[in-house]
C-alpha cells in the first residue's frame, strides 16, 4: 500500500507515493500552495532556532542602554556609508547583546571594542556584497585606539562565548518569509517598507532584546498594516503564522512599536528640517563626497574620555523615516 508524505503537518491523502520525487509532487499542486508550504517549513525551523538557549538574552543592564543606543546609531551610519545591508546591524547587536549578558562581571575589555568587533564579525559572515574589512582597517577606523591584535583577540572571545552560533534568527529573516506569503505584492509594498523600518528602529530599544525575533517581525507587520489600512484578507496567510503561545508577547511588541512609531511621527511633523531616508538620518548616496562626509563623522566615534561606555560624539540629529527597499 503506497505511503503518503506529510508536508507541514498536512496529509496529502495518498497523492504522493514514496517512490515519487518531491519535485513531481510540486508540479501537481498550485504554485501558491507550494510557497505556503515552503514558507511554513522555513518559519517553523526559524522559530525552533530562536528557542535555543544560545540565542536567548535573559537580561540587559540599564547602565549600558545609553551607550548601546549610541553605538547602534553609529553602526547604521557605518553600514550606510559603506553601502552594506542594514540588516547586518541587527546581527551585530545579537552578537553584542548575547556576549555582554553572558560576560557581565567578567569582561576585561571595553564595551566599544566588543561592539566594534561584533560589527566586524557580522560583516565578515553576512555581507551579501562580499565586502569585508580586514582587522587592520577596523583598527584604523578607531583611530588607533585598538590595534589589529585587539580586534582578532576579541573576535575569538566572541566566537567562544557565543558557541560559534553566528547565524542568529533575526526579525528581518522572518519578515522576508512574510513577504513571500503576501498575496498582493503591489498592495503590500508599502507595508513591507514600513515593517522593515520598524524592525530597524526596534534594534535601538533594549525592550526587544528579550523578545522572540518572530514576535518582533509579526508585530512590525501588524503595525505597518494598520498604518496603511491594509485589508485583513490580504494578511490572512501571515496571521496564520502566529504561534498561540507567543500571542501575549506579540501584543506587547505591537504596542511598543506603535508607541515608537507615534513618537517618531510626532517628532517628524514638528521638525521643519529636511528628513533623510533612514533611522539615523544618513542619506544613502553613491557620491563619494557624501560617503567621505559620513566617514569623517566616524573619526570621532572612538575618541572619548568615557572609555567604559564610549560616548558617541558623532550622532546625527536628523529625524528618522522608512528607508527605501
TrEMBL record:
The keyword Coiled coil does not apply. The keyword Membrane does not apply. Residues 73-160, 172-259 form the Cyclin-like domain. This is Cyclin-like domain-containing protein. It comes from the Eukaryota. Keywords: Cyclin. Belongs to the cyclin family.
Amino acid at each position: 500500500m503506497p505511503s503518503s508524505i506529510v508536508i507541514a503537518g498536512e496529509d496529502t491523502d495518498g497523492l504522493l507515493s514514496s517512490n515519487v520525487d518531491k519535485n513531481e509532487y510540486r508540479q501537481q499542486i498550485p504554485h501558491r500552495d507550494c510557497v505556503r508550504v515552503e514558507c511554513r517549513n522555513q518559519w517553523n525551523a526559524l522559530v525552533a532556532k530562536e528557542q535555543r538557549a544560545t540565542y536567548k538574552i535573559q537580561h540587559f543592564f540599564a547602565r549600558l542602554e545609553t551607550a548601546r543606543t549610541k553605538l547602534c546609531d553609529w553602526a547604521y551610519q557605518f553600514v550606510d556609508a559603506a553601502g552594506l545591508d542594514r540588516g547586518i546591524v541587527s546581527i551585530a547587536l545579537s552578537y553584542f547583546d548575547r556576549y555582554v549578558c553572558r560576560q557581565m562581571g567578567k569582561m576585561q575589555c571595553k564595551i566599544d571594542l566588543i561592539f566594534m568587533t561584533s560589527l566586524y564579525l557580522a560583516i565578515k559572515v553576512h555581507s551579501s556584497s562580499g565586502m569585508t574589512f580586514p582587522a587592520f582597517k577596523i583598527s584604523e577606523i578607531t583611530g588607533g585606539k585598538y590595534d589589529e591584535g585587539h580586534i582578532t583577540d576579541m573576535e575569538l572571545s566572541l566566537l567562544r562565548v557565543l558557541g560559534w552560533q553566528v547565524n542568529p534568527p533575526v526579525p528581518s529573516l522572518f519578515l522576508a518569509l512574510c513577504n513571500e506569503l503576501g498575496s498582493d505584492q503591489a498592495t503590500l509594498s508599502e507595508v513591507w517598507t514600513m515593517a522593515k523600518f520598524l524592525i530597524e528602529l526596534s534594534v535601538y530599544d533594549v525592550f526587544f532584546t528579550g523578545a522572540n525575533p518572530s514576535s518582533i517581525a509579526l508585530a512590525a507587520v501588524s503595525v505597518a498594516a494598520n498604518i496603511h489600512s491594509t485589508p485583513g484578507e490580504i494578511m490572512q496567510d501571515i496571521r496564520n503564522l502566529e504561534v498561540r503561545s507567543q500571542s501575549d508577547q506579540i501584543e506587547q511588541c505591537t504596542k511598543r512599536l506603535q508607541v515608537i512609531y507615534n513618537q517618531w511621527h510626532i517628532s517628524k511633523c514638528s521638525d521643519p528640517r529636511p528628513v533623510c531616508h533612514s533611522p539615523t538620518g544618513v542619506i544613502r548616496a553613491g557620491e563619494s563626497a557624501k560617503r567621505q562626509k559620513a566617514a569623517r563623522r566616524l573619526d570621532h566615534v572612538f575618541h572619548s574620555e568615557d572609555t567604559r561606555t564610549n560616548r558617541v560624539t558623532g550622532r546625527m540629529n536628523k529625524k528618522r523615516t522608512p528607508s527605501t527597499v
